[in-house]
């Protein structure tokens, strides 16, 4: 599955440059043009890293970083104006993983991005997520329910993981498609529904009145936060 990167920057040309280059190197890039959109995107989808510009209208990158760090340890690489040492120092102090001064070469950014992802990898490998009786070992991709192992396909695991990372919150079908490595929404809407049905069966969830994975009609699905 491609590594998912969220770019928060109001420079459209930068997105066009990075999207083309990073996609050739195993990444997918989602771009938003301001801080509030970036925070919303992080809330609605799962990403592996964030590229965050400091200088943006309205909410600047440092404030966006503060809000990200209140809830999330995702790797964040700051994009700063060349020679602006103050922004770099403050960014690192409040939780940035690295910075790249503009203008930069895509090759340099790729190298720094890979470096912060490598540093974050041990945490991802050891990560365990528990929601009620559902336990997920992220690194070894194993799931148990009520202490008993559950045999899931790769896509089923990715969809369950996406839901478990945001318990009690609705996850749109499009986000589930992206996290399961499927970008074709026209073909994939029904595909997600089928995999959700299989997940319910394997978790012993009543398909007529599900209590674990609930449908939000016209939007997506939510994993119940308080599972017994």
From TrEMBL:
Domain OmpR/PhoB-type residue range list: 126-225
Short name of one Pfam family: Response_reg
Superkingdom, taxonomy of origin: Bacteria
The chain positions of domain Response regulatory read 4-117
Q: Which residues bind DNA?
A: 126-225
Which of UniProt's keywords are assigned here?
Cytoplasm, DNA-binding, Phosphoprotein, Transcription, Transcription regulation, Two-component regulatory system
What SMART domains does the entry give?
REC, Trans_reg_C
Subcellular location per UniProt equals: Cytoplasm
Alphabetical list of CDD domains matching this protein: REC_OmpR_CpxR (cd17623), trans_reg_C (cd00383)
**Keyword DNA-binding in annotation:** yes
Q: Which residues carry this modification: 4-aspartylphosphate?
A: 53
Q: Which SUPFAM superfamilies match?
A: C-terminal effector domain of the bipartite response regulators, CheY-like
Keyword Phosphoprotein (UniProt)? yes
Where is it mainly found?
Answer: cytoplasm
> This protein is called what?
Response regulator transcription factor
Source organism per UniProt: Pendulispora brunnea
